[in-house]
Write a structure and sequence with these properties.
This protein has a single domain (2-133), classed as VSR Endonuclease (Endonuclease, Chain A). Strand 1 and strand 2 (66-72) form a beta hairpin. 19% of the residues are buried. The chain has a 4-stranded mixed beta sheet, sandwiched between helices. The protein has helices at residues 2-15, 26-34, 38-47, 89-104, 114-119, 121-133; strands spanning 58-63, 66-72, 77-82, 108-113. The longest helix has 16 residues, at 89-104. The chain is globular, with a radius of gyration of 15 Å. The chain is of the alpha+beta class and 140 residues long.
Length: 140
């Protein structure tokens, strides 16, 4: 019931707002792209130009009031990289609210720690590809 209620609130909000890539958020998206963390740059090298299984990803893609690190629109999959700042109670609560919002829009969210990307990029890439292939055999 709570999830259904929160999804109804999300649906009402989205009726009056840009769902994807609001023009108002363009400057912030651009800044985030230009100031990407080392982990974001490392993973982007794997995801860019449909390098991972032929799936197209966007980086710093906004949905509602949130900006996703990476987003595959074909599979409605968001990839989020978390540094130490995401480990506080407040940040964990924010991330949970954000994930619930995205889930209400049928967007799945995968989260990885920055250290996972730095220490085991192959495993991160494999996990992303598994999630992408869990719903369809591959992009057309």
């Amino acid at each position: 019931m709570v999830e259904r209620l929160s999804c109804r609130v999300v649906e009402d909000y989205m009726r009056d707002a840009w769902t994807h890539n609001s023009p108002d958020m363009r400057p912030l998206r651009k800044t985030l792209r230009n100031e990407a963390t080392p982990a974001e740059r490392e993973l982007w090298n794997v995801l860019r130009q449909s390098n991972l299984g032929g799936y197209k990803f966007r980086r710093q893609h906004s949905v509602g009031r949130y900006i996703l690190d990476f987003y595959c629109s074909l599979e409605r999959l968001a990839i989020e990289l978390d540094g130490d700042s995401h480990l506080t109670d407040e940040a964990i609560e924010y991330d949970c609210e954000r994930t619930a919002f995205l889930n209400c829009l049928n967007i799945r969210v995968l989260r990885f720690l920055n250290t996972d990307v730095h220490e085991n990029l192959d495993a991160v890439s494999e996990r992303i590809l598994e999630e992408l292939q869990a719903t369809t055999p591959g992009p057309s």
